[in-house]
Amino acid sequence: MNLIDIFITSILTGNIILTNFLGxxxxxxTSDREKNAIGMGISVSIVVTISSIxxxxxxxxxxxxxxxxxxxxxxxxxIIASMVQVIELLLKKYFPSLHQxxxxxxxxxxxxxxxxxxxxxxxxxxxxxxxxxVFSIGSSIGFTLVMYLFASIRERMETSHIPRCFKGAPIAxxxxxxxxxxxxxxxx
Amino acid sequence: xxxxxxxxxxxNPTFVLLLGLCPTLAVTNKxxxxxxxxxxxxxxxxxxNFVISIIKKLIPESVRIPVYILIIGTFVTIVELLLKExVPTLHKxxxxxxxxxxxxxxxLGRALTVAxxxxxxxxxxxxxxxxxxxxxxLSLIGxxxxxxxxxxxxxxxxxxxxxxxxxxxxxxxxxxxxxxxNILASPSGAFLTLGLLVGIFNAIRNRKGRGKLESN
Lengths: 188, 216
Description:
The structure holds 2 protein chains of 2 kinds.
Chain A: H1 3-11, H2 24-29, H3 34-63, H4 72-94, H5 96-102, H6 106-109, H7 113-124, H8 129-157, H9 169-184
Helix pairs in contact in A: 1-8, 3-4, 3-7, 3-8, 4-5, 4-7
Chain B: H1 2-10, H2 21-26, H3 31-55, H4 64-86, H5 88-94, H6 105-115, H7 120-149, E1 152-154, H8 159-163, E2 173-175, H9 187-215
Helix pairs in contact in B: 1-7, 3-4, 3-6, 3-7, 4-5, 4-6, 6-7, 7-9
């Protein structure tokens, strides 16, 4: 598959939230304000891109030669968890203002399935290094885009009349269903 | 017993706590893959709760979460290897969502709130309750999505190879004379079904809550 294909697919038709169902927890949980959605989106994008590069290198240069690919789940989650810690420390030291803005989202990312999911998808789809990079950047953009759009819709929804039992998560899920339908139609 | 029922109804991980939604939405397009996924989570949850509640006093507070994730990861890898060896078709159907149990908020959440505080027996009971609650919820969603989305129902397809129950083959896939609603089998149908079910669940709970207030 060529790079442009992977890029467009990962943003629209193969969107990480709406068709792969990864990162649903922050999608439902923190996307009730546009500002939060952007913060979460940027944090996830940074972590996803760096972790994809690291996991690619470790998988192909350590796990494959030593024939220990069955350990990939544990190794990947360890890399992601420690990397999130390092990023947080670096941000705190060198970009305190950015740390203040994104600080609350970073610890949540360790248990965000989008990060581990993209690392595993890269391996499963047998992408080479460039494809891995393009796929992870595309997925990050797709994640941020959908988070932002969804948060805008939810802000508008606060003022509308919704049956009491559908308030909150249920109506959010139904909105997501309509968005998923639209995004899948980009395939033509 | 009370703990188990609590996990199935009052603290149902899918409909009430809304945790672990990624596998809930992703694998429920077939009834079989739904209950197998639920069962895998139940097994991982049971063993990780058991181990964590035994060694909770040995783990320093500051490295609690990494240690828990490692323990959970170990059990997920064991389950993954077992499925790959014995039921390869199901291993393929569950795909990346099987290793993703590691970051499933239900398992880590239960480790943090229950296994690290309560006794071994309590933790095991809680794991069974929550696990069954999750399995039932997934089965229900899978059942609705498959029966209305593709008008078939897959009871045992991949599993029949392992169990060697050739006699029961005829209930593998049943074709039903219902008009299929294709949208339910697509990704957007997953969101729709879950949204509607959570709404219905809320309505039932609200009515019950009101009934209690009036009787008081």
